[in-house]
Amino acid sequence: GKSFIRNSHLVRHKRTHTGEKPFECPDCGKGFIKYSNLISHQRTHTGEKLFECTDCGKSFIRNSHLVRHKRTHTGEKPFECPDCEKRFNQNSNLVIHQRTHTGEKPFECTDCGKSFIRNSHLLSHQRIHTEGIPFECPDCGKCFSENFSLVKHQTTHTVAKPYE
After folding, report:
1. Rounded to an integer, what is the distance from CA 126 to the centroid of its chain?
2. Around 119, how many Cα atoms within 13 Å sit in the side-chain half-sphere?
3. Residue 62 counted as domain residue
4. Per the structure, how many domains does the chain have?
5. What would the pLDDT profile of 73-92 be if each residue is shown by its tens digit?
6. Which of 49, 74, 45 is nearest to 63 (CA)?
């Protein structure tokens, strides 16, 4: 198991296993393992944003969000894929990218069993089961669950193909 210098850190860590969240938001009831996370969360209700970008003036409720945002100005991409050396500005994007190498698709549709790399892709897919497939190509009749997918598809009908 893990070791900790302070007993309080061990107590806090144990909460990740027990699910105990003793610090509750008085506004919405959401619980937190750490008091500092509750304080950060409460800023979502008050609108208080303590961390401002000196480049563009955009403000954030957490310093870590500001640090991540600043990479959009610097172009810094500190997270590198060990398989292909592609770089990312957020670790979460690297984790998602690595699934293209491993083939892991952890988000599975309970209706049909189809799996996806991203949860957002699963949520888009699930609309097929609840709403049907609403976007139809007027040129060939192919259907899409997302308008942007239809728009992308339509370029296949309009792009010049000089080597046919």
Report:
1. 18
2. 3
3. no
4. 2
5. 999 999 999 999 999 999 99
6. 49
Beta bridge partners of 23: 32
Q: How far apart are CA 93 and CA 120, in angstroms?
A: 13
Output the pLDDT for position 162: 65
| Domain-located, residue 160 | no
Closest by CA to 72, choosing from 48, 85, 53, is 53
36 within domain boundaries: yes
Range of the domain at 38: 7-46
Percentage of the chain surpassing pLDDT 90? 49
Query: Per the confidence metrics, is the pTM higher than 0.70?
Result: no
119 located within any domain: yes
- Give the model's pLDDT for residue 116: 92
Q: Which of 17, 41, 21, 45 is nearest to 33 (CA)?
A: 21
The whole-angstrom separation of Cα 72 and Cα 64 is 14
Q: Report the percentage of the chain scoring pLDDT > 70.
A: 97
User: Are the beta carbons of 33 and 18 closer than 8 angstroms?
Assistant: no
Specify the CATH number for the domain of residue 142: 3.30.160.60
